[in-house]
Design a protein that fits this description.
- With 126 residues, this protein is an alpha+beta fold.
- The chain is 21% helix and 10% strand.
- The strands form two sheets. A two-stranded antiparallel sheet has the order 1-2. Strands 3-4 form a two-stranded antiparallel sheet.
- The longest helix is centred in the C-terminal third of the chain and has 10 residues.
- The chain is globular and about 50 Å long.
- The model has no long low-confidence stretch (mean pLDDT 87).
């Protein structure tokens, strides 16, 4: 087409399951995008980002005590198969529910779970 690859984005995508092109695959109907964004966008440099100053409570005491996750930072979770990576991530996301429902913007955290290379059946189970 001669155009740069772009994807639809917006708050309406939160809580939905989409494919890499932004198309819904959760059976809940179409998603109205707020705008299109270029896929290969240059990320801001470390100096341009806001500093991470407070921890995000995962609700998992071992993680919170030994390797705290900074609130607002991206987190890569890697490890061997069948070691509980997905369970830890989903538990962390679920543990943010009370903060979100409080309505306090200073406590609310938007959690986006990205599963690359997972089977469709695995994603459906999540």
């Amino acid at each position: 087409t001669g155009e740069v690859l772009s994807i639809p984005v917006g708050d309406n995508f939160l809580g939905r399951v989409i494919n890499p092109l932004g198309q819904p695959i959760d059976g809940l109907g179409a998603i109205e995008a707020e705008e299109q964004r270029v896929l290969e966008l240059q990320a801001p440099s470390v100096l341009q980002r806001q500093p991470v100053e407070e921890p995000m409570q995962t609700g998992i005491k071992a993680i919170d005590a030994m390797t705290p996750i900074g609130r607002g930072q991206r987190q890569l979770v890697i490890g061997d198969r069948k070691t509980g990576k997905t369970a830890v991530c989903i538990d962390t996301i679920l543990n943010q529910k009370a903060n979100w429902e409080s309505g306090d913007k200073t406590k609310q955290v938007r959690c986006i779970y990205v599963a690359i290379g997972q089977k469709g059946s695995t994603i459906a189970a999540v």
